[in-house]
Amino acid sequence: MWIAVAMGAIVVIILLIFILQNTKQVAISFFAWDFELPLGVALLFAAIGGVLVMASVGGARIWQLRRAYRKTEPAPEPKTDPKD
Predict the structure, then answer these.
(1) What are the tens digits of pLDDT across the range 36-46?
(2) Residue of 16, 34, 43, 37 lying closest to 25 (CA atoms)
(3) In total, how many domains does the chain have?
(4) Which of 39, 44, 51, 79 could link 22 by a cystine bridge, Cβ 3.0 to 4.6 Å?
């Protein structure tokens, strides 16, 4: 557990250093919107968007596999009374 927390902290520190060193403004065009952001922040938003897309696709696939597994799972056998 503590190793995961330490690794997460290291990743956050590296990410902050990257963002702070890449402060040059870049023009972003997205559909009808035009705006400027620091390069590090723009790349961070792109990475977050990629993670969200992959998480939603992965979640949909897991849901699909669980549903298929439940359909193939055998029904429980009815309990019989040993007195009969």
Answers:
(1) 999 999 999 99
(2) 37
(3) 1
(4) 39
